[in-house]
Amino acid sequence: MMGNHSSAMEFFLLGFRGSSKLHLILFTIFFFFYSVTVLGNLVIIMIVCVDKRLQSPMYFFLIHLSVLETLTTTIVVPVLLWGLLQPGIQTISLAACVTQLFLYLSLGTTEFALLGAMAVDRYVAVCNPLRYNIIMNSHTCTWVVSACWVFGFLSEIWPVYATFQFTFCKSNVLDHFFCDRGQLLRLSCDDTLFTEFILFLMAVFIIIGSLIPTIVSYTYIISTILKIPSASGRRKAFSTCASHFTFVIIGYGTCFFLYVKPKQTQAAEYNKIVSLLISVVTPFLNPFIFTLRNDKFKEALGDGVKRCCQFLKD
């Protein structure tokens, strides 16, 4: 679709192959996932903000995680849905592609940093409960969350800049439903091997770097829980960490398959499946993971529903 010696000023997203009937089915499924994701995370944010029983560091971190999940899926899914409704190939400008990739990677990096911080928070809550409110005070929590956001966005400036310094002269057709970095590098006529290796090292640093405090924290947490004499005490202690631990396994598992690899330019279908898990399925599960096993949140949600019903009756 372009000359052999020019760089793309716009890209064409192939999205999902198949008939219009298949596209309609996929649109319905992804629209449902997206709607539940946005609504569920907004409910979490509102309930935590208005209910005084949830004014603790754990829920303060949860608000930011819900914001990150909502933004991550919003950057990708509306473009995906629009592509499923269009009869032809979807066009995206170079500026929009750069913006989408930068926000997608930055929010993902911020989320990894936040998950590490949440693991440390759970360590303090379980292993040092008497000093929890002193250590995890409002100033500390605000500083930690701010550092996660700043780190997430600053750390992705160079990777995105380096990606778009290449000349995309092979084609301007991306076999994906959004501006995926691996597929972008496949279009370059330049030698991308060194840049891919640096991106691999950065992915290792970010993902493994945030995973280390999580592993260390849960090692101490599990050791402390096993020392609790009563079964009910162990169950209560573990319930405070179960949601975060479940989310960590899902989040890190999918991203390991997509980013922690020396070769970024792998099969398009593989990238699509893993990207769907990260941008659609995981954000969809987040509201359920953090609410269904949390008695305090379910109680606050029930009270909120009762107040809304009472307000509507009046």
From TrEMBL:
List GO terms (cellular component aspect): plasma membrane
G-protein coupled receptors family 1 profile domain: residues covered: 40-290
**Cellular compartment(s):** Cell membrane
- Alphabetical UniProt keywords: Cell membrane, G-protein coupled receptor, Membrane, Olfaction, Receptor, Sensory transduction, Transducer, Transmembrane, Transmembrane helix
What family classification does the UniProt entry report for this protein?
Belongs to the G-protein coupled receptor 1 family.
CDD domains for this protein: 7tmA_OR6C-like (cd15912)
Name this polypeptide is given: Olfactory receptor
Report membrane topology: Multi-pass membrane protein
According to the lineage, what is the superkingdom? Eukaryota
TM segments? 22-47, 59-81, 101-120, 141-161, 197-221, 242-261, 273-292
Q: Name one GO molecular function term.
A: G protein-coupled receptor activity
